[in-house]
Amino acid sequence: MVTSNKKTARSKTSAAFTLVEVVMAIGILVLAMSGMIYGYVQTNYQSEWSSMSLAVQALTVQSIEQSRAAQWDVYSSSANGGTNQFAVGNTTNIFINAIVLPSTGGALGGTNGTLTVTNTLQITLITSFPKLCQIRSDSQWYFPLTGKWFTNTVITYRGGS
After folding, report:
1. pTM for this structure?
2. Inside any domain, residue 150
3. Nearest to 132 by CA among 140, 141, 122, 123
4. Number of domains, the chain
5. What order do you get walking across the sheet with 113-127 strand by strand?
6. Which domain holds residue 59?
7. What is the pLDDT of residues 97-129, one digit of tens each?
8. For the chain, what is the largest distance between any 2 Cα atoms, rounded to a whole number of angstroms?
């Protein structure tokens, strides 16, 4: 039995890809890759926003905790020689803080950048007997990638002993 190693003309033409098949394969590859790149960019954007928001939230909670830790003697007043560190009444304190955040090429320009935060602390007397105050801390910050301002807010209450 004799076998031939020669291929027929039909098998030679069907062994290769046509130009249309190659263009379609490249088009599908481009669509898949662009979807992956878009997903990566969105993930990086969201993680940068989350890291900034978390840093600002920590600063907001810090101002709440400082006011809650202040000495507040409800039976004496500052006018009577008391040692109150807690400003009772409708008071507002505004602090401007700078947070240094590491950045990897996103919102802060690729190097460690400074995020400016304006923190507003409001202490409002709710009732005189029993003594009860509302402590509200608002922190405003700017996210450069969207060009928008955001506000983180924490509200708590403190009662006098």
Report:
1. 0.69
2. yes
3. 123
4. 1
5. 91-101, 113-127, 132-143, 148-159
6. 19-159
7. 877 776 665 555 544 677 888 898 888 888 888
8. 121
